[in-house]
Amino acid sequence: MGRTPFSNPVQYFLIVGVGLFSLILYLTFFIFLDVEGKLSLSLGSPSTYCGSTNTHDMKQRTPTTSTMTVTVTPTPKPVEPEPAYCNYCSPTDEVCKRYGSFNLARSRAYEGSNARLKRVLRKLRSGQKIKIGIVGGSVSKGHGLKDRRDNWSYLYAEHVRDMFAESTSSNATNIEVELINGSVSGTITQYMETCFREHIPEDVDLVIIELAINDQRLEYLAQGYEHLIRSIFALPQKPAVINVQVMALMFPTITMGGDLHTAVAEYYDTSIISIRNVLLPHILRSTQLKPSDNSLEDYWFGHDIVGGLDLRHVGKNGHRMIADLLQSFTSRVACEGWHEDQLIGTYSEDSNVAGGWDWDPYESDRTAGLISSVPNPNEGDDVSEYVPRQLLFQKYDHTTSVPPAVPFCRTTNTLVGMAAFSTYAHQLQPMPAPFSSEGPDTFVLWSHQSNPGKVWLTGRKPGARAAFKVQTSALGRVRVTYLRSGSWGLGSAWCWIDDDRQNGQRLDGYWKYKNAHVTNTHVIVQKATPGEHILYCEILEDTKEPGGATEFRISAVDAL
To answer: Where do runs of H (alpha helix) occur along 216-294?
Structure first.
């Protein structure tokens, strides 16, 4: 029986291999780089790619070459490593280890876009000095602290300085952060809305407001908070604003003025860091489980001189928490700003511009023919740091535009360790005679020997009169801040503007609250014409003080 051709496997594969090799030679497979440096594969005759100069011969032949080009992308430049502060809740984040991501998230009551704060942090990252101003009350002043370096504002400023010094190689030695703590004990937004410039300089880059527990939950104080933010935004450096909300548990309600501040802060896109959001759930739960447990209050709040618990002021540990929460927040914002800088040119940068993104309706609406288009607003106007043209407490319309207000203030509070060297503080002083009284019946700067740091412009006899120059601007409002007490023998005064004594206002220093000694701000006139006016205050013989006392104490006059 004959054998089948190629039945031997070795012989079979040899013949197949020779055939394939011949086919490859026939097709003449070439790999080469073209003149542009691109990797190319040529299948077929290589004639058109050889160095032959016989152009006539090339024209006579019909090219049979098919070319596939593969472009090799150059290796990108190494990406700049993230700064050290881009470590939120990573293994190196000590603040996150201390509080946990849950509590840190709760602390950020409102984050917002932080456009202004990112601008300030970019300035610092470039090696330029920044100034941080604090506008607050007794907590931020450091009530109960033995060392000013335990104050949250000091700790925070140190962190900001260290954060950028560690992350900025070439300019590390140039990182400079100046802290100006302009806090005044016993003050409310009603005072600070016009007098804050007496306590912090005009060229601040960042202002941190801490007045949440100083204000009662009253609408007119929230309106004052709005004026405060608008006036800060109008400063030369267009500063960023952060709202710090501390907690007090001694008042009739847990809710305080800060809860009304929140709506205003959101309207003006200013971030809020809240210590209450973090602490209160833990305190409520611990006392629910064991009503006699006051360990958390004892740890976070301060103590008076005899060791009693002070639920009005946080203590040293509370200050550390405020600084830590601010540190975590600021690091997050700085990191977000750094990432945005790295991505410039790689994504749409117009989302902060009016009309900068697609305002058309949903695709399904267009397909269904429900509406063809939505008109764009005024395109090209950046709204990332926009100050609303209307007040939050106004009715919306299309025409109202509130101009920037320039606060005017003269106050005795600048005398507390400041007026001797400050270029931005203005001492409250009456005009000379004949506008003001002279001799023994005049108003004079005075403080009680038990509290020499608290200075008042004080008059004692009926008929004593003090006159002050004031400058009104956008609102045309003039006010007087004075002391009220139920046990310090205070009388009453009549205050008016220019020659309009008839339409003046009565201010009573006495009230029924025996153990409450606080300042009160009273509006003397609304909607005065913009410009200079003279404010008069004269002590009345008629007094509400049961003992007939007539002493009257003024701490500030202001206008807006």
So the answer is: 219-233, 258-267, 276-289
Pair 500, 478: CB distance under 8 Å: no
CA distance linking residue 475 with residue 216, whole number of Å? 23
Nearest to 243 by CA among 214, 217, 212, 213: 212
Residue 291: exposed, middle, or buried by beta-carbon count in 10 A (0-12, 13-18, 19+)?
exposed
- Give Cα 431 to chain centroid, integer Å: 39
Query: Of 110 and 8, which is predicted with more confidence?
Result: 110
Q: What is the pLDDT of residues 22-59, one digit of tens each?
A: 555 554 444 444 444 444 434 344 444 334 444 444 44
Q: What's the rounded Cα separation, in Å, for the pair 378 and 395?
A: 22
Cβ partners under 8 Å of residue 134, min gap 6? 140, 153, 179, 180, 181, 182, 183, 200, 207, 208, 210
How far apart, in whole angstroms, are the C-alpha atoms of residue 478 and residue 535? 8
Signed CA dihedral, 116, 119, 124, 129: sign only: negative
Q: Any long-range contacts for 76-82 (C-beta under 8 Å, 24+ apart)?
A: 79/342, 80/342, 82/335, 82/338
- Rounded to whole angstroms, the Cα distance separating 560 from 527 reads 10
CA–CA dist 70, 66 (Å, integer): 14
Please check whether residue 131 is in contact with residue 120, taking contact to mean a CB–CB distance below 8 angstroms: no
Condensed to tens digits (0 to 9), the pLDDT of residues 134-173 reads 999 999 999 999 999 999 999 999 999 998 887 665 455 6
User: For position 6, what pLDDT does the model report?
Assistant: 46
Number of neighbouring beta carbons within 10 Å of residue 353: 17
d(CA 390, CA 403): 9
